[in-house]
Amino acid sequence: MAGFQPKNPDYRAISIATFEAQRAMKTMGISISRLGPGEVDLAMDYSPEFTQQHGFIHAGVITAGLDNACGIAAFTLMPAGSGILTVEFKTNLLAPARGERFAFRATVVKPGRTLTVCEARAYAMHGGAEILIATMSGTLMALAPREAAVKAKALVPA
Amino acid sequence: MAGFQPKNPDYRAISIATFEAQRAMKTMGISISRLGPGEVDLAMDYSPEFTQQHGFIHAGVITAGLDNACGIAAFTLMPAGSGILTVEFKTNLLAPARGERFAFRATVVKPGRTLTVCEARAYAMHGGAEILIATMSGTLMALAPREAAVKAKALVPA
Amino acid sequence: MAGFQPKNPDYRAISIATFEAQRAMKTMGISISRLGPGEVDLAMDYSPEFTQQHGFIHAGVITAGLDNACGIAAFTLMPAGSGILTVEFKTNLLAPARGERFAFRATVVKPGRTLTVCEARAYAMHGGAEILIATMSGTLMALAPREAAVKAKALVPA
Amino acid sequence: MAGFQPKNPDYRAISIATFEAQRAMKTMGISISRLGPGEVDLAMDYSPEFTQQHGFIHAGVITAGLDNACGIAAFTLMPAGSGILTVEFKTNLLAPARGERFAFRATVVKPGRTLTVCEARAYAMHGGAEILIATMSGTLMALAPREAAVKAKALVPA
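Predict the joint structure of the above. Result:
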């Protein structure tokens, strides 16, 4: 799960730029805390605006963090000019998302030319303890540079 | 997939109240558009605050809608006083979440005393067309009334 | 979910041939009972050789049936010369696989040039009743004709 | 992921007995190669009877191995007299199941009174190399001793 060799020497800057182009991440208060080839950690503070009925963070927000961690981890290993799509993910919720801060840690399990499989874990920092609250396994798809350019043109926001 | 008999005669009011107790739903602009025994439709308008890098709605937000639709659909069939937890879900993303409005439609596949399995579909309304953009299958867990009361006490927001 | 137009006029023969080339299907006693564009039903008799500790059919065998139903359903819509791979699937087990006969019914949810998403359901025929025992959602991948030919050459059995 | 404390001092014998009561495992040639609290490795030799169209092991058989590894890993941590059911699992297929021997390695991620979440990986031993070919995340359910006894009585093989 270590020693991945990025194909794009500029992977760091382009991964950060792709992450920051997502307004949803800013709205949810999610940021990159660590980024390497095939490995990404995201961080999020507790926010009452994203809670469910017991005052904990909503599973959809936890999933958004896990999905983005997977997506950026996969993206670090793709060739320059690629686009990226999430194909599917599965989340197991292990404990309530109760805490002051949250971490989403993803690693690439198997990189591929078209499909990359990642795993991620979500942790809650609560009163000094770090608790595993959710896991994700997901499949990400690389859009070849030419395809990605065409899509980007077509994909003017609604 | 039809003809479910709710155990709680008050299922409608309690399901709506549980949905509305989730601040995340309000923040994301998601509301109930239809609710029956074992069946729930949610609706959401496009909001630029929840977009990814191409200006479409983020997969995590789509997942939050699908998860809530499943949760409330399962909840309509649970006995009075029950609590509800999501155990797991899997989402397949079929098309970009591009549209002016979105619908999340869930049905119970198999209700159970402890576990209930649901399926849901997300649709984008875009220029008059309705496009299937994502599917979910998920498992929800009922907390027995006594357990739910204990949890609710313990679960004061962080 | 209906009205799919096959790209390969010969889809029927090639789908059946691909199914029958799988010795595992024969060993498990699984056969095609219905096949149309984007839709496949498989059938299996109860066999004590494939049971778990309570004498019911093992979840892995049920999954093999569901996976094959999805794979062949996806395959019916692929261009002539394509190969097919399963990318991922998720199975929810709803009831014990207790019965004299079993059916696996798959439909394509979203066909694609590279990826196709399918859903399938497994039923047990037990004492005259038909019981839903498991669901699957899965992603299948088409190998382009050229790629498929290269792979077929490389893939001589171990 | 280490240091689990079994509740049943006899967990080893009962786990092995439960595994061996599954005829499907014997039919597929799957056996236990290592077993500890919350951790199980299974082994399987290549068999032409369980192949797909390219002569590799069928994904359903790989899934049967992964599911059983998860099930027995979860079972090692359950109280004496418990029964066990698989609730759901998701499998990502990473590479063709091409090899002379296969290993299925599962660990408990989160044990629980009712639900236990496990992860497992499948490896192919091919020409001296060990290749990761599939991953699973799954949810297992404990049946309380009384419930398990009632079910066992009811569950006479069809």
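Chain D touches chain A through twelve residues (CB under 8 Å).
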